[in-house]
Amino acid sequence: MPTNAKGLQREFWVGALFMTVVVLLVIFGWLMGAIGPIQNHLKIFVLYNFAGGIEVGSPVRVSGVKVGKVSKIEFLSSAAEINKDSVSLKITMDVSMKAAPIVREDSKFYINMAGIIGEKYIEISPGTSAAPILHTGATVRGVDPPRIDQLLSQGYGVFGRITDFIDENEKTLTEFLGGMKELIGDANKLLKGRERQKIAGLIENLHAVTGDLHEISSRLKNPETIKFYDEIYELVHRAHAIDKPTLQKFLQEDGIRARVF
Amino acid sequence: MIMTWLGRALILKVGEFLATFFLWISTVLSMIKQLLKLKFRARETLLQMYLLGVQSVLIMVVAMGFVGLMLIIELAFHMNLVLKHDSLVPAFSALLMVRELGPVITCLLLTSRIGAGIAAEIGSMKISEQLDALKMLSIDPIDYLVVPRWIGSVFAAVTLTVISLAIAIWGGAFLAAQKLGTSPGEYFNTVFFFVKFPDLAHCIVKSAVFGSLIPIVAAYQGFNCGSDSAAVGEAATQAVVRTSLYIIIADFLLTYLFYAI
User: What is the mean pLDDT of chain B?
Assistant: First the structure.
């Protein structure tokens, strides 16, 4: 009997160890996202041309809150056409149902970067209440992230052209910079030297002149001045209409004899 | 003269190496043959699972708990030294534990605890001619002695590795909260952003491979020990040394297979 009891005790402890490990594996699997006790989620397909480092398991966030993960990334065998835009990547994501009410047809799907080593995630911007809610199985077009390699390549080209320009016009640029340097030096001397008082006076006079001009212009805006100006304008306009015979006739009526050229 | 002596020594060494290698292979093949029969000695197997697995839990929990704490302190120091930032310490310590240190340290500790014991037990059975007695009773020593220990060792290696990981990760969470000010939620978020389920699967495969190496090498040393009591001690020492070496080589090969190809 004691031997049998000991055997049972051993069986119990071996079983307990085994069960503990199974429970730990289930917890690990759940925490790592390999198994989920609740499979209630939205499955959304997002099309991209460039994934920007997204991997299976990358988080999906709505308004910065983690609500799911990327479950699959696949290349489309023939590039799909969406609004005349060809796409080659299909990313499947599982989004928690609690975020479903704000994931709508006009939501944007960005690929963002977080943390100091730049882990990638998909950020969904909440849609407007007027747009319909996305349902499971919906396919939407994501916003491609900027391609840093392309930007660098373009920047490299631009810098190359600038370098060529500098190399080709080195003499002209040197002269130009030399001239600028001299000009700045002269201006500096002028501002610091004996002429400083004169410049100060000049600026003071300029200030007075602009003040006077300002006063004159404000007086001109007076209603009486405007009326006077209108009358002069009308007089000149009428005088302009007086031609040579009319002027001769006017003068002859008063007994003046004149020769008008 | 010298060349002849060197040639003889080389031939002897090569011959010894080949003989050892073929004996090794023969031990492994006999064990596989017994395993394929799928007829296990249940009571003996359960006893070995208890002795090798259950009785090693305490030492593993204590040792791996301290390894987890040491990793947090050491990685925090290194990351603060280089990056001036320690937010990724939990992720890197957990990743290092799951991918490398968890299975390797657990199985090295297991080797020192059970490898020497298996070699000494089989070696002393050999010098007291108990192995010959088993053969006379038509009992295959591989089937009777090695297979239950092999199953027990693989069970112990896998279960203890999973428990060690749990202890190290949860211990790390405690220390990170105390030393780095990282909340448990933040800790587990960072850890399980980087540690994925395939890492855990690879860890389990590694521990199973290392666990299977321990009884095979130890039993081989026991079966091939000399005929005096000093030889038993030598066999036990050699079992620990060789198993540790093979575990490290196997770790490199498996890491290369899983992550570098």
Answer: 86
- Rg (alpha carbons) of chain B, rounded to whole number: 22
> What whole-number distance in Å separates Cα of residue A126 and Cα of residue A139?
16
H helices of chain A, where? 2-31, 148-168, 170-192, 196-220, 223-241, 244-253
Residue A225: which pLDDT band, with cuts at 50, 70 and 90?
Answer: confident
H-helix or E-strand containing A119? strand A119-124
> Looking at the structure, do residues B34 and B85 belong to the same domain, yes or no?
no
- Claim to verify: residue B13 and residue B47 sit in the same structural domain: no
Chain B hits for A10, Cβ within 8 Å: 46-47, 50, 54
CA–CA separation, B50 vs B148, rounded Å?
Answer: 11
Out of B87, B158, B200, closest to residue A28 by CB: B200
Domain assignment of residue B201, given as a range = 43-260
**Do residue B233 and residue B211 come from a single domain?**
yes
pLDDT tens-digit readout, B183-208? 888 888 778 878 888 899 999 999 99
Contacts of B65 (CB under 8 A, 6+ apart): B167, B168, B171
B252 and B239 in a common domain: yes
DSSP B179: I
Say which DSSP state A133 is in.
B
Supply φ then ψ for residue A64, to 5 degrees: 85, 0
Number of domains in chain B: 2
Regarding whether B10 and B50 lie in a shared domain, the answer is no
Is residue B6 domain-shared with residue B102, that is, in the same domain?
Answer: no
Q: How many residues does chain A have?
A: 261
The answer to whether A82 faces chain B, any CB pair under 8 Å, is: no
Q: Which of B158, B162, B196 is opposite residue A57, by nearest beta carbon? A: B196
Q: Are residues B110 and B22 in the same domain?
A: no
Write out the two tokens for B206: 């590694």
pLDDT digit string, tens, across residues A49-94: 888 888 887 888 888 888 888 888 888 876 566 666 778 889 998 8
